[in-house]
Write a structure and sequence with these properties.
alpha+beta, five-stranded mixed sheet, 43% helix, globular
Amino acid sequence: MSFPNQLKPQANALQSDTPADPIVGATRVWLERAVIGLNLCPFAKAVHVKGQIHYAVSSATGPSALLEDLRRELKALVSCAPQQRETTLLIAPGVLADFLDFNDFLDRADRLLRKEALQGVIQIASFHPAYQFADSAPNDITNFTNRSPYPILHLLREAAIERAVQAYPDATAIYETNLQTLRRLGRRGWEALGVGPAP
């Protein structure tokens, strides 16, 4: 699988918040049109508007290098005040194109959280161009609630999640609401958004 607008930067380097970077640009478009535009995450708009989302592009070409980039981004996030950086999107255009490999990597990411004593402090959510829920067919439109232009590790502060859940009357309903949104949108509707891989 190839990813749109993929760059080939030097290994073991991170590019961060570069407006001209097409990878960051494609990710912002996906966030604005799909995640916020379809209200897939009711909490995303506020941090986006406030400029509290940090975009980091990993040039890793293997899982171990990505794990090191993840370690650096975890430390950077916890060292920043939430008002400055509430959350981080670690984008990995050059590695883990296969969703099963990406899914396996998430176990390593969780072990890293434990090793860095960040369980209960940071939570890692995931997005992927070929994201597939366990009980769905590969091209089921509902998978697109979690499909992004590139593999993404979303680093969230647990405290922010707790505040969001308290503010949202029925956070547990978000998943089902998102599935219904994608079913109503359909394949043509998703393609019209122009945010990533087509169904």
